[in-house]
Amino acid sequence: MQHDRDRDRRRDEIDPLVDAWRADGLDDALIAMLELGKRAGRLHNLVQQAVRAELADHGLTYAEFEVLTVLRRAGSPYRLRPTDLTRSALLTSGGTSNVLQRLEKAGYVERGSDEGDGRGRWVRLTGEGLRVTEDALVASGTAHDDVLGSVPPEKLRAAADALRDVLAPITPRR
Asked: Are 144 and 47 in contact (CB under 8 A)?
């Protein structure tokens, strides 16, 4: 009873959908799945909107930011093969190629051939690319804080852990 009263006080824009699904007689397990998908999608959209706005102030698209941060995570010398970059950034090879062209033109990455293997290629962050990446990471943090900063840290931790528990059995291992 207390749980229902607490839930009623913190309804969100997904709850009317849940009410309609219940009225339609959908199974509780299916409702939970639909609810999770809708809320995860809503959260994703809110964060993405905020991050994209911050990145635009830095002259970056989200895809460009992803590529830059993947290279930064690789550690010094901030260099990866394009195929590894594509896989880690969750882009298509064509999408990666287009992003790399823009980043290279801006002076944020450089591309070259592997001296040991004439067919091998690499992509590396430039000094300017590293600086822009660091600035964009701060901007991304600001955007995340703008959206999620009012949520208590223990709630965020619990939600992140719960989502890992949901994703683990359905995510293919590489």
From this structure: yes
